[in-house]
Amino acid sequence: MTAMTRLSIVFLLLFSCSVALGDSLPPPQGPVILSISGEIKRTNVGDEAHFDRTLLAELPRHRLDTSTVVTDGINRFEGYLMRDLLAQVEARGESTVALALNDYRVDIPLTDFHDYDVLLADTMDGETLTPRDKGPLWIVYPRDEHRELQDIRYDYRWVWQLERLEVR
Ligand SMILES: Nc1nc2c(c(=O)[nH]1)N[C@H]1C(S)=C(S)[C@@H](COP(=O)(O)O)O[C@H]1N2
Ligand SMILES: [Mo]
């Protein structure tokens, strides 16, 4: 092995280590629909994580059919699991404040997302959620699958028009 080859290998190793450890999220290219701040390790804009639709789409998609307290019958929601989203930014806190476009805010314990398949929904019945209609993102709990979720304490946490999470 030539000195040059050896040197290239060393650089290659250093480079792949820094990629593995550097651990920042790619920057958003399109409109940002969700920002996460606070106790997170992976960021892409200052000390926050900003997601456009493409960055969110790196997470596995999930579907949830459930009734809600604000619609009739059963709706089909699609989106991402809140626990996958929080794992993606390496959230470390106890709870998250969820803030909406209409200035609504509520504190949600992070344990909810481990105990239940809580969805960050971006579509309902196949239609993309828009800000006129509870979008662009709506936190949706699997209320039909768990009796204890059919409670006002959880109804508060179904934040529609979600735009920001502050992990604490
Ligand atoms: N963005 C946003 N999400 C929200 C609210 C709100 O005012 N704004 N109200 C919460 C409350 S108090 C409940 S009970 C449920 C249903 O609220 P609604 O009946 O006012 O639609 O949504 C929750 N999510
Ligand atoms: Mo409410």
TrEMBL record:
Stretch forming the signal peptide: 1-22
UniProt keyword Transferase present: no
SUPFAM superfamilies in the record: Oxidoreductase molybdopterin-binding domain
This protein's UniProt keywords: Signal
Pfam families xrefs: Oxidored_molyb (PF00174)
Domain of life: Bacteria
UniProt-listed Gene3D superfamilies: Oxidoreductase, molybdopterin-binding domain (3.90.420.10)
Oxidoreductase molybdopterin-binding domain boundaries: 75-142
Protein name per Swiss-Prot or TrEMBL: Molybdopterin-dependent oxidoreductase
